[in-house]
Protein: Choline transporter-like protein
Organism: Theobroma cacao
Amino acid sequence: MQKFHMQTQEQRIPSTSIIQRQEPSIKIEATVAGRFLRKIFQIIFYIQLFLVSILVIALTIRGLINASNTHRFHPKKWYPPLLVSTASGGIVSFIWQWISFHYPSKAVKVAFWVSPLLTCAVGVLHVLIGSPVSLAIGTIAVVSGVIQSLYACWVNPRFAYATKILKVSTSFPPDGTTTFVTLSLIICVIYSAFLVTGIGGATATGTGLDILFIIFILLSFTWSMQVIKNLLYVTISRVRYMNFACGVDMNTQIAFRDTIKHLVGSVCIGSALVPVFGTIRGSARAMSLVAGGTDEFLFSCANCYSGVASTLIKYGNRWGFVHVGVYNKGFVQASANTWEMFQRAELISLIDSDLTGVFCFLSGLAVGSICTLAGGTWALIVHKSYATEVSIYAFLIGYFMCRIALAWQQACVSAYFVAYAENPQSLRFDSTIPVRIQELQRHRV
């Protein structure tokens, strides 16, 4: 144990020295294959950004020319609802992260109880729109809102612990956090508005090829927003980890510089894997709840699917971003290491019951719904045929805006758990986690 502790400290020396020196502070120990894979993903990410930018410019110009010639597309009725929704998403997301920092208890309750209401309101809006696609979306939204309400009732006893974790882990935000969040949201607003112009240009003609263009733009948007969120996540989690684990106050700006310089490839990989693996794990849990303990044929694959999901989550989970930032590990390796560490510290059941991730997710749904109601209602009034697509795009933009705004808080929580798992005996931690573990053990008994 002493040898392991010394090795760990040696690995951290480059990171702690960041306070005294302005040189790169991340120790590069990746294998040749690992560096190659990261570089490939980094290159792919930059290439798709370049390609989507060229595509958006071309579609925008073509759409405006086509609209002026045929009057089939009305830019003044299509763009304003979406652009206003985009700006609203940035403003509401910033305000919400401020509220959740200063009033975490109220924020948790509001997210779990208001999000279902807003989701149902979105469902009602789509029913009023009346198109076949809108009716399908409206039905899904209403059912989703009911499920969220039932889930909130089920996890209500865990609100107090989620609030405590948020308070403990974010009690001292890293310097410059507000600046980073503000700049990230401004970049996202500009980037979203830019892509919206391209989607509008493709909508102006509406051919089969244009539909493929829109799908490509939306996929690029999703990945890019995930990368922005996780760049902020890696930077903040590294700073907070060094404070929790070593008592070191790290310079956030230099940590961000190191993230951009060395870790973009790993972040791109994680940004692609985590949403997919998280969706698989969530669906596996839902399937297990439905199947229960039955051995009927229809549910015979539930255990198998859960096993696959459990295996995948070991190699692609958000906790791995902490080790990506601290040790410059590849994302898959970092995920596996943090999961192993949680198992050794017997924290798997604890992180499974942690609601902070769900809180961020539901907050994203809430802000997305607000943007949908703003843009969709506007479009419904001025041009009903645009309402469905406008509301969908507005929801995606609002959702990702909020997730980016709350990334720093989720990063602080992750850093807290990872640092605790590495050294549970550290005097820097209070009784929050040990008390919660005892409660879980009593419930199992």
The chain has one domain: 32-444. The two ends are 32 Å apart (CA to CA). Confidence is low (pLDDT under 50) at residues 1-25.
